[in-house]
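Researcher: I'm preparing a figure for a lab meeting and need a structural model of a single chain. I don't have an experimental structure, so a prediction will have to do for now. The sequence is pasted below. Please return the structure as C-alpha cells so I can convert it later.
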Amino acid sequence: MTTNNPGAQAAALAHAGPGRDAGQPRFTAALARRIAAIDWRVCAALALLLAVMFPFLWLVQLSLRPADDLFGESLLFVPSLDSFRSLLQGDFLASLINSLVVSTASTGLSLLIGVPAAYALTRWRFRARRRIALWVLVTRMAPPIAFTIPFYLAYRWSGLLDTSLGLVIVYLTFNLAIVIWLMQTYFASIPQALEEAAYIDGCGVWGAFRRVTLPLTAPGLAATAVLCFVFSWNDFFYALILTRTHATTAPVAIVNFLQYEGWEWSKIAAAGTLVMLPVVIFTVLVRSYLVRGMTAGSVKD
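Model: Understood. Here is the structure written out cell by cell.
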C-alpha cells in the first residue's frame, strides 16, 4: 500500500538508510583485514617458484601429450605414455645409463681426489701452496674447445675414443677444480682447535681428518657433489666430440631426434624429462645438506 504523505516517506527513508550505510563500512573493514592477513612474501615466493618451474612443467606436459595433439591450444588432454614407450624401446636407454655411470664415476673420483687435496692446501703450510691453488683455478678459465683437439688426439692414440673411461677422465679434469676450490672454503671454516684436540686423543693427521673434519663438512660435500654431478650430466660438447656410438650420453642422444625429415618433438620432450629426473631426485635427496652447504663458510666468527 502506497502513501502520498511526504512526511511518512521521509521518516521511512531515515529509518532504513543508516542500516544500509552501516553495512558497507563493515564489509570494507573485513576485506581490508583479509588483505592485510595475506603474507605477500609467500605469494612472491610462489610466483617465483612458478616462473622457475614453468619450463620444466611445460616440458612434462608436452611429453605426456598424444603425438597428434602435441601443439594443441587446450591444456586439457588425456595423458599418454606412448612417447616414453617408444623412447625406451630404442637406444636412448643405453645412452641414459652411460650418462648415469659416467657422471657418478666422475663425481666420486673428483671427491676422492679433490677433497684430500683441498684439505692439504688449507691446513698444510708450504711455499707453493697459493700458486698450486691458483693454477688449479686457471684450468677452468680456458674454454672447452681449447682442450678438445689435444684430448681427441690423445684418445685416438690410446684407444680411449668412444669409451666411458675417456669421458670420466675428461670430466675429472674440470670437476677437480670445482671440488678443490669449494672444499677449501669449507675446511677453512672448521676451527683447527678441533683437530688439535683429536691429536691429543691419539688420532693422527688423517684420523682427525676422517673422524672430525670430514663429518663437519658433510653439507659442503653434498653441495659440491651436486655441482659436479650436474656439470658432468649436462655436458654436451665433450661427449659429442669424443664419442660415436658405444659411449654416447643422453644429451647427445637427444640430438639424434633432430633429423632431416623432421624433428620428433614428442621424443625430445620425453627425453628431456628423463634427463632432468636424476638431477632432481639427487638434489631432493641431499636438499637438507645442500642449503647448509651453500651458506657454510660465508660468515666467520
